[in-house]
Fold Cell division protein FtsQ.
Amino acid sequence: MWDKPALLNWVANLLYAISMVVMLYAVVYVVVHLPIFPLREVKVDGELHHVSREQVKLIVAKHLKGNFFTLDLINARDAFEKLPWARSVSVRRRWPDRLEVVIEEHQALARWGSTALVNKQGELFHAASGSDLPVFYGPDNGVIEVASQYDSLNKVLRSAHLEVATLALTPRRAWQVTTTNGIVLELGRVEMQVRLEKFANIYSSTLVGLNKKITYVDLRYPSGFAVRRPTAVVNPEKEKVASVDSAKAKQGDTKAIKSEVVKKRTGTVT
C-alpha cells in the first residue's frame, strides 16, 4: 500500500472530504441551534369562529419548541389538530422568524345523537356547540349516508315551510323524519324524496291548517299516505268541575225563574 502513491492519494482525498463534511455539519448544527434564529411570530389564518386566541397561545407556549430551523413542523401541526374545532391544519416556516398556520374549522351540520357533532363532509367530531342543530341517528357506518340525505330532504320540507328536527336511519336502512313542529314522517327505504315531495305538496295546499293536530304520517303506501291525529284526552277532574258548574248554572237559572215569578206576582220592578 505504501508503495502505491495513487492509492495513498485517493485515501488522503477521501479522509479530507470526510473531515470537511463533518466540519461543515458541525458548523451548521451549531449555527442552527444558536439562539439567533428564534421564532418571533406565529400567524394563524383561516375562517375561525370557534378557535380562540387563548387556545392558540396555549399551543404556542406548550408545544412549539425550538428555533426557526429546529422546530418540528409535524409535531406543531399535530398540536393544532387537537383543537376540537380544527378539521385540518397546515404549517410552514416563513423566513426569517415566522411560522404560518392555516386552520380549517369544522362546519357543524347536525348532532349525532348525544355523543358528537357531524360536519358538512359527514365526519364526526367532538366539540361543544350551543347552536340549534338538527339531530341525526343511525348506525355507526351511516354518518355520511345520513348527512348526504339531509340537505335534499330538508329542501323539500322547506317548500312546505317545515324543517327537519331529527333524521333517523334504522339498521334496515329505513328513514324517519321528525319536523320542528312535531310531525313524524315515515319514509321507508326507497323513493324517500318522491314520497316527501307528495306530502309537501298536499301539506301546503290542504293540511297546513291542521298542522297542530297532525302527529304522524306514514308515507310508505304506493298511492297515498296515512295521517294520524292525537285522540282527545279527557281529564276526569276537569269533567267533574264542568259538571258541577253546569249543575250550578242550571240551579241558578231555576232560582232566577222563581224570583222573576215572585216579582211579577208582587209587582216588584227592577
Observations:
- Residues 158 and 200 are 9 Å apart (CA to CA).
